[in-house]
Amino acid sequence: MIICKLIFNRSKATALTRNNLSLYTSVLRRKFCKKQSDNASDGLENIPVEQIRNFSIIAHVDHGKSTLADRLLEHTGAIKTGRDKSNQQVLDKLQVERERGITVKAQSASLLYNYNGEKFLLNLIDTPGHVDFSNEVSRSLSACQGVILLVDANDGVQAQTVANFYLAFGNDLVIIPVLNKIDLPNADPERVCHQLQTLFDIDPSTILKISAKKGIGIDKVLEAIVKTLPSPPVDRNAKFRALLFDSSHDKYRGALSLIFVKDGTISLGDNICSAHTKKEYEVKSLSLLRPDEVPVKKLVAGQIGLLGCNMRSSKEAHIGDTIHHVGETVEVLPGFQPLKPMVFAGIYPMDQSQHIHLRNAIEKLTLNDSAVTVEVDTSPALGQGWRLGFLGLLHMEVFSQRLEQEYGAEPIITAPSVTYKIKLKPTKQLIKDGSDIIYINNPAHFPDTVKIEETFEPMVKATIITPDEYLGSIISLCMERRGVQTNATNIDNNRVMLQYDLPLCEIVLDFHDTLKTLSSGYASFDYEDSGYQSSNLVKLQILLNGTAVDELSSIVHITKSQTIGKQMVHRLKDIIPRQMVQIAVQAAIGGKILARENIKPYRKDVTAKLYGGDVTRRMKLLAQQAAGKKKMRMVANISLPRETFIDVLKK
């Protein structure tokens, strides 16, 4: 009502721009939330530390994490009870999450639960299940004392289940095993319990059996959280310090930091300092996520909340940073070991006039996704852009989709590549510089063969869990991708867990899709970095009439060069437009030609105007045309339109 008055008040209408209106709306919203803020603050600040539980839900993709989070929110009164679409995937707030049906961003919610007449504060963090977003999982676990290990009673233990279990086990977290989807006709809880006992030595009697979709057994999960998980080891009387473990970007408030208050208290108006950047800020806003943002006046040790203090860039909101009061000396909290990007791709604007808009979009989105690395890059064909590093192929796809959906950008994404390590032959200059190892992820920077002493490619340790009926085809796939089997374990009578050492470049494109096709969707796949291994790598060049085009070159293993070269020239033959001269498309390694295709030129029928006469007239015209074509081929430059590079380079 008040907003409508502001809009239709003629005396003020000229002064109200869209930004001012949004600012007024924000101010009014804060005023209306003040009473709610006071009530929320009074109820939560007085909860003793012994009655606080911080936990995450970890599982494989599509095992029901978001559905279980919805039921926990309902049973604690955080959201209304119901099964309508507005009450599903409450914590999956991104459009890409709802479209794909997966969680890509960890979300937090503070729940109030009454147990035996006492009020408990349960801080829930819903985490992604795909291997590409393991960075979200590891950061979320740093603020927790326990986890719910969720397993599908139908599908059983999957590859990412194994990875998440050992991630939580390595952080000394209490694990509550839970079987979900017991209501399904094909569910086999006894078989899955046996898998958990075989792989993780979990007592079957301690495993909870629930159906998150129907709400069966949710009360037992809440009781187990209260009884089993420890309270956070915090001190409310010590100097304030908090761990910044996640961040997001708000259009009007800048960077918002999700913090776990380790010690002390933080209030509105406090002056705080970043231990990483040494910059000082004034606390502008404090909020609890229940799951919607609820402003509060202060946060105390043991709580997880949202902090706004006019941070403006991803460099200021450093993940793993310790926040403390200005002028106080505190011990820095253990941060995070940043995960190394596994897959690199170039991102360029569709038109250089959109360069600034795309740059701003990437800067804001990297606040929400700190695992992405950004470096400025330039392409002669596509102009100025960036070289971005991702944790995997799905990570790259989701990032580009969010750029389009959330910021209206139209990026060109080049085909993904990986980082190779190259040891150069010793020279006087290298000895002087003190380094003979270089890392490259762009084929254009690949050095000459005569300068290379040894090449290395990144390797991963892959875990594949599959029904034994698909074992033969999966082993063949791994051997085709140059994999080496290191272990094989029978989980039960029907399922096998395989472990392989695989080159990263062999799995980033289509390995996962091929695996799902061969196994009818039943096999699961997970991988982790295992360093570099010596390998025979070469630079595959594409020549157009004998001239190398660096933008079309690639780094390949010597055994795959022939196949990839033939595929590349065949594809280019269909993409490159015909011109006035013949174009020879060749794939080469050094001076050796591996494959060739010819693109025929346009040809004018110069004899069409002849109406009889001696045949020598016809032969003379054809000879003149052939001589002209030969001369043109010697001096002509092949013009490749920008769309050709886009078609070749994009994934």
TrEMBL record:
Main location: mitochondrion
Residue sites binding GTP per the record: 59-66, 126-130, 180-183
Record's subcellular location: Mitochondrion inner membrane
Membrane topology: Peripheral membrane protein
InterPro entries the UniProt entry points to: EF-4 (IPR006297), EFG_III/V (IPR035647), EFG_V-like (IPR000640), G_TR_CS (IPR031157), LepA_C_sf (IPR038363), LepA_CTD (IPR013842), LepA_IV (IPR035654), P-loop_NTPase (IPR027417)
Boundaries of every Tr-type G domain copy: 50-233
GO molecular function annotations of the record: GTP binding; GTPase activity; mitochondrial ribosome binding
Entry's Gene Ontology BP terms: positive regulation of translation; translation
Recorded catalytic activity of this chain's protein: GTP + H2O = GDP + phosphate + H(+)
Pfam families for the chain: EFG_C (PF00679), GTP_EFTU (PF00009), LepA_C (PF06421)
Example of a GO cellular component annotation carried by this entry: mitochondrial inner membrane
UniProt-listed Enzyme Commission number(s): 3.6.5.n1
Function of the molecule: Promotes mitochondrial protein synthesis. May act as a fidelity factor of the translation reaction, by catalyzing a one-codon backward translocation of tRNAs on improperly translocated ribosomes. Binds to mitochondrial ribosomes in a GTP-dependent manner.
HAMAP family named among the record's database cross-references: LepA (MF_00071)
Family: Belongs to the TRAFAC class translation factor GTPase superfamily. Classic translation factor GTPase family. LepA subfamily.
Record's protein name: Translation factor GUF1 homolog, mitochondrial
